[in-house]
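User: New here, please read:
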Amino acid sequence: MKQLIAVYLFIFVSFTSQGMGNTEQAEKVPFAKSDERNEQSNLRLYEIFVPKKNGDLFLTEINLFKENEQSVSLKFEDAHIYPDFKETYIVINPNLVNTFEIYLNYSTTKDGGLVMCGGNRVKLNINDLLFVESPPEVIPPPRKP
């Protein structure tokens, strides 16, 4: 229980420290969802949703990391039902989910090219993100033909 409280405080402080004057931005925190329906496989899908911006910084990279074993840059895209978020996913054995960490890199440029005045790196635990309440879903408008 103490770990869970510590994670909530970390996430809240990480994402509100740069956006104190912007309460709309301060409410956006990372969260995850899990697809638990596939009982035939030892693998589970984890969808990870992270804010596009952290204060004045833009999300430029999401990495999956397992100490002394691997570091993988994850592809991410706009989360259509959560407009201010980006979405990525991983498929792993649920027994191993606590062995992986997610690192978010934010920079001063949208494309992640030149990082001016430093950037911001946020470390997350997938299992802890499952307990964060997701914002309300937004139904996107239909695409124009």
